[in-house]
Amino acid sequence: MFSFGRTMGVMRKEFREMVRDWMFVRLALVAPTVVYLLFAYGLVVDVENLPVGILDMDATPASRQLCGELFSTRYFRRRLLASSEQEIIEGIQSGELRLGVIIPPGFQRKLEQGQFSPIQVWIDGMLPSRAQVTRSYISGVLTNYNTRVIARYMERSGVGGMEALGGINAKIRYWYNPALRGSNYLAPGLFMIVMILFPALLASLSVVREKELGSILAVYSSPLTKFEYIIGKTLPHALSSLLNFQFLFLCARILFDVPFRGNLLVLEGVTFIFILYAMSIGFFVSVLVRTQVAAMLTTTVATLLPGFLYSGLIVPLSSMGPEAEAISTLFGATYYVSLCRIIFLRGGNAQIILHNVIPIVGFTVALYALTFMRFKKRVA
Amino acid sequence: MSFFSEMRRTLALMRKEFKEFFRNRALLFIVIYMFSVDVYSAGTLQMMVNNHPLAVLDRDHTPLSRDLQEHFQTPFFRHVAQLTDEREIDDMLEFCRAAMILVIPEGFQREVASGRPADLQIIVDGTDSHTAQIATGYVETIVDAFNREQMGKRLGAPPEELPIPKLDARLRIWFNPNMNESWFVSLTELFNVVMVISVLLPAAAMVREKERGTIEQLMVSPLHTYQIMLAKVIPMVTITVIGTMGSIFLVLRPAYDLPLRGNVFLFFLLTALFVATTSGMGLLVSTLAETLPQTIMLTLVVLAPMMFLSGSWTPLEAMPFWMAKLTAISPLRYYLDIGFGILMKGNGIDMLYEQVLGMTVLGIFLFGYGTYRFRRMFS
What's the pLDDT tens digit per position in B229-241? Predict the structure, then answer.
């Protein structure tokens, strides 16, 4: 028998407990935003301003133009104009340089004669994912330069301009994020980290605290059913987390200037569902552990670790291995990360939003069911 | 009082610390877990972008258009769909089934064969800016190679003998030519583990004495403050260095074939210096916290900025200027330079003295301030 009155009673108590502890109120209001900002500023996915060391042994207009084109992009920054190979080697060894470019003598002459003109490009491979990006940037710059060299060569040799060269022209267009701003991608995705960690912590701690303090015995002996108890605990914390979300949303819109193309109500609704999902993880943890320290550690490990590794927040889902991909489809945060990005950058239609919301709802129901099954109203 | 009897007292206290550590099975288990399973599993994380889902709308249906498609290969690209209609493009991108669409126009082969430039439409999902940029680089390289082949065919010469100039970049990836991702991630995790443990263990050992009230006994014993602190720190340094050795020789070497290019002995020596430095931070934490949960919270609060400021996930050059300057106060930053420098780059002490100096200065400060606060607690 579900009693609405009793549930309201639990809610009232939870709410009072929350507000009474003024320190806690301040922490609960401020901490999520601080964590969000810490990650949003700390995690830089854009590879820019790579320090480059250059050794130009040719010192001709052609080699200077190549250097100019290299440093006219936002990806590379000149750090060292070396006078010997040794300086570049030392720079890469000490980590001062991420990239070394060596232009040998005769560079311009070979290009003018229509030959292969080699240059050395050394990339710091310590962090392969960044080395991969660096390689792709430098290839892009060199290919563009090369195209212009060919065009000039063709003109001079009297065959005509680029048209005579034939071949194909790739016209690349970027959808959804035409300026390719990293924060447009990261800032909405990062909502997930905060909206999974804090509601789950609040949920697990609110139950385990009562276990540790012994006040849960009063709950056991009362006519309160476990449904009423858990539901009564859910709502006040879910609402306070939703309040937190408003701050995150403002940060993303104002501080990080992310365009918002979707419907705010849809985003709020989706977030509320995700908060319930996060809380269901917390409640499930709370039936497994007994102390607050254990609850804190377990909840953090159960939410943050997969949140960073498997949600597609940092590593795109498409480049995950089969096992990681399987884990990611069973993890609600994966869907919430895509939802935030879709609603912010694309707007999104009802079909795609439902497609991503339904799994979250399913996991939430399942976790609540598991919690109810494991929750025993008696002393173990 | 002779030097030796003082030494003996310190040693007795150290023995007690070792005993206490090994008696606590749960803690022992967590420490072993962090040095083994945790470090190993971090190494399985792959951050390189591969298998970029590509859909093709081929309006030409000629051998040449198929040839072009084949240039978009693994490991970077993965064909997910062959489209037949322009209206499908929207759906592909909207539902994230493909992240890039290649549109080959009608008459593509005819244009190319006649030597006129043919336009290729490429639509990239820019949501993930990072991946989109890498994809762009690959596209440019592929198109360049394709054009060269075509020209070679027209002029009847292999691409490398064409009478046109070619900027030929000889790429070399240093330190990690096969781009093995496990090395960086697992080592970073190991260095982070070393830091967490070297802050948490001494802090917990000290706070435990506070909670139980045994700290008063220590204070009335004929031991100096620095002796008490050394007796707490040295066992933790020993345990952490042994854990690091185990992690490198028993986990990372066999599992990921981690190269050890420099002087390993120097690395462990500097690890001990790093652990001593950060355990100063642990002692500082222990003067602020009264209970174990508080210690854990405070440790987290202290460690999170240290990790962010270490340059382990965000390299210094990608940080805003003020943040890059702030990294000077993170001991982990120096330790990462030292660890990667010795193990992967084979650097010697001559390239690392700045880091060693920075770490030592930080250590002296942390210890001095920790001792000061520790004394004040009782006066």
Answer: 888 889 989 999 9
> How close B50 gets to chain A, by Cα (Å)?
5
Distance, CA of A78 to CA of B213 (rounded, Å): 59
Q: How do B118-125 and B100-104 pair as beta strands?
A: antiparallel
Interval A4-13 mean pLDDT: 88
Residues of chain A contacting residue B125, judged by C-beta atoms under 8 Å apart: 174-176
Q: B95 CA to chain A: closest CA distance, Å?
A: 6
Q: Which of A86, A129, A138 to mutate to test the interface with B (most CBs of B within 10 A)?
A: A129
Report the C-alpha gap between A168 and B118 in whole angstroms.
Answer: 5
* B145 Cβ under 8 Å from any chain A Cβ: no
Q: How far apart are CA A188 and CA A245, in angstroms?
A: 11
A313 and A339 share one domain: yes
Q: Which CATH number fits domain B52-161: 3.10.20.310, 3.40.50.970, 3.40.1710.10, 3.30.780.10?
A: 3.40.1710.10
Residue B44 is predicted with a pLDDT of 79
Nearest to A182 among B99, B114, B130 (CB): B130
Reported as a single tens digit per residue, the pLDDT across B43-64 is 877 777 788 899 999 999 999 9
Residue range of the domain that includes A29: 4-43+181-374
A218 and A90 assigned to the same domain? no
Q: Which chain B residues touch A329 with a CB distance below 8 Å?
A: none
Q: Write down the domain spans for chain B.
A: 3-45+179-378, 52-161
Q: Is B294 on the interface with A (CB under 8 A)?
A: no
Distance CA(B169)–CA(B148), nearest Å, equals 15
Which residue, A165, A192, A210, sits at the end of a domain? A165
Q: Which of B210, B378, B371 is nearest to B279 (CA)?
A: B371
DSSP at B103: E
Provide the shortest C-alpha distance from residue B372 to chain A (in Å). Answer: 29
Q: Into how many domains does chain A fold? A: 2
A74/A30 same-domain check: no
Query: 171-210 in A: which are within 8 Å (CB) of B?
Result: 171-178, 180-182, 184-185
Would you give the DSSP letter of residue B125? E
